[in-house]
Specification:
single chain; DNA Polymerase III, Chain A, domain 2; 3 domains; eight-stranded antiparallel sheet; 6 helices; elongated
């Protein structure tokens, strides 16, 4: 193997695939990056057997081949090289690789490339495509509701559904639920409903920052594969039955509050300062044109905030987890929202005021006066 490429492009690729490196593994090869030549560049791959990331870099290929290099060492080397052309050379069949850039020269030992795990075929069953920016938004608006409870693995991922011309991402931890749906420009080639681990979704959203165009989705060997030019993300799927999320979404309300998102976010953030109990409780009550938010922790103190709103229906007082409220308000991407209440002990729903493609359902906190 003998290639040369710009340091900046190589560093970006090394850092990106490094997100899939496992820090806890009994398999040494999972701490390595596979580097292999293509017709007009090199392909870098890393995996922890649940998530795999593959990035292509344009390079001058003088001799084809493949090597594995320790991810941490490779990242440190490339990150400290000058912004110039990097040359990577390894004799065929050797585990020793030379990395050179201007006056810097390294010789690094790898492991046999044959030890590296084989990934599924990338050209598996095509599912459909979603705009990259739209997919990143869908992930950001749902992933914070994923559960961290490993005893219920089916709640530790995002439920991804493609059905006809509609795509949905859903996440829930049992106490809240976030649903984002979009209309696709082209109908999905096949219907799917799969649970994708949160880590894979987080890394995908990170990788899609600044990416334009469509993300191609495909199924291969019980993995979902996301592909954009120069990048491919493989994710294993979580087995199990995702809950019937439709039945927990309130279909009616007794009070609907219309409020500016940023004003509500700032008010909740301030009220949460004295919400220091186990559930970060903030009480809400709207009457007339005022929404009052209060919190009270005896050993800390109490707070009261008022926000101008438009309210319809009967006044209801309910209590919610402030952090759960802020998770939604930070990601809803709407200037105004509807906060719908059905009772002091019934779930509330938050929806954008100008479209119906997003809903956040939040269970109330039972409080005692």
């Amino acid at each position: 193997m003998w290639v040369s490429c710009p340091q900046t492009a190589l560093l970006k690729a090394v850092q990106l695939v490094g997100r899939a490196i496992s820090t806890r593994t009994t398999m040494p090869i999972l701490g390595y990056v596979m580097m292999e030549t293509k017709k007009d560049g090199i392909k870098l791959t890393a995996t922890d057997l649940e998530l795999a990331m593959q990035v292509e870099v344009a390079a001058e290929v003088k001799q084809s081949g493949q090597v594995t290099l320790p991810a941490r060492i490779l990242s440190e080397i490339v990150g400290n090289l000058p912004t110039a052309i990097v040359e990577i050379k390894a004799p065929e069949g050797s585990t020793q690789t030379e990395i050179s850039c201007e006056t810097s020269h390294f010789e690094i030992l790898g492991l046999p490339a044959t030890d590296f795990p084989t990934l599924p075929r990338a050209d598996g069953d095509a599912v459909g495509e979603v705009d990259a920016d739209v997919m990143r938004m869908m992930i950001n608006q749902t992933i914070f509701a994923v559960s961290g409870d490993e005893t219920r693995p089916f709640l530790t991922g995002v439920y991804a559904v493609l059905d006809g011309a509609e795509a949905k991402f859903v996440a829930t931890d049992g106490g809240r639920l976030a649903l984002r749906k979009v209309q696709l420009p082209q109908a999905a080639r096949q219907k799917i409903g799969v649970i994708v681990p949160a880590k894979a979704m987080q890394e995908l959203a990170r990788a899609l920052a600044g990416v334009e165009g469509a993300v191609q989705l495909g199924m291969a060997d019980n993995q979902l594969v996301f592909t954009v030019p120069g990048l491919r993300v493989y994710s294993r799927l979580i087995s199990g039955q995702f809950p019937n999320y439709q039945q927990v979404i309130p279909q009616e309300f007794k009070q609907r509050i219309r409020v500016q998102t940023e004003r509500l976010l700032r008010a909740v953030r301030r009220a949460s300062i004295t919400a220091r109990d186990s559930a970060n409780v903030v009480r809400v009550r709207a009457e007339g044109k005022k929404l009052a938010l209060t919190s009270n922790t005896p050993e800390v103190g109490k707070a009261r905030e008022e926000v101008e709103v438009t309210a319809e229906g009967e006044p209801i007082e309910a209590a919610f987890n402030a952090r759960y409220l802020m998770d939604c308000l930070n990601n809803i991407e709407a200037d105004e929202l509807f906060f719908e209440l059905t009772g002091p002990l019934s779930p509330g729903a938050i929806r954008p005021a100008h479209h119906s493609d997003y809903v956040y359902v939040l269970a109330p906190v039972r409080v005692y006066s």
